[in-house]
Amino acid sequence: MKSFTAFLNEEESITTWYHGSNNRNLSVNNIVIRDDSERMFYGDAFYVTDDISLARLDGKYIYKVQFSGNFYKTSSLESIKSFGTFKNFLSIAFKEIKRDILDKVMGNPSYWQIKLKLSNKLIKEVLVHGDSHTLAEKYIEANLDELFDRYADNQMGLRDAFEEMGYDGITDGIYTAIYNPETCVKSIEKIQL
Fold first, then answer.
1. What pTM value is reported for the model?
2. Quick check: 6 pLDDT over 70?
3. CA distance 127 to 135
């Protein structure tokens, strides 16, 4: 396993990281980690980025953050089995659902008509035309909450696994996910833009 360590007081290793937030008074003591975000790249964590323009996407207040700890260095989401965003998860799920859904619906059309909330007309059309695309869209629409739960479970499982291996978070060089900001974050300073 490759690791990346951010050292706060070694001049050659100091990097400025940014965090965007709508909290106007963010401090180490009031960081809130949400487990309902659609952008849990590396699990539920406090995210910082080395690109101030990316931080601006997350909130109107920009903070300069310094932290230290043992961070796993990854070069891709795939290498650590991360879906990245919920949108990416849905894209992958759509392909898998599309591959199998038509056979399932043909095997028990009345069950799937109710489960996917399809009109009589639509169920007949998709079966006649073999329209797995529409069926996959309807499946995702009808099961969005369940699919989000699967996404969140996977992403939060990343955090659990990396913490068990002794890491304080994950970095890809652009984003860093800090799992325990109360121990890793050394300073947060709001900056004026």
1. 0.77
2. no
3. 9
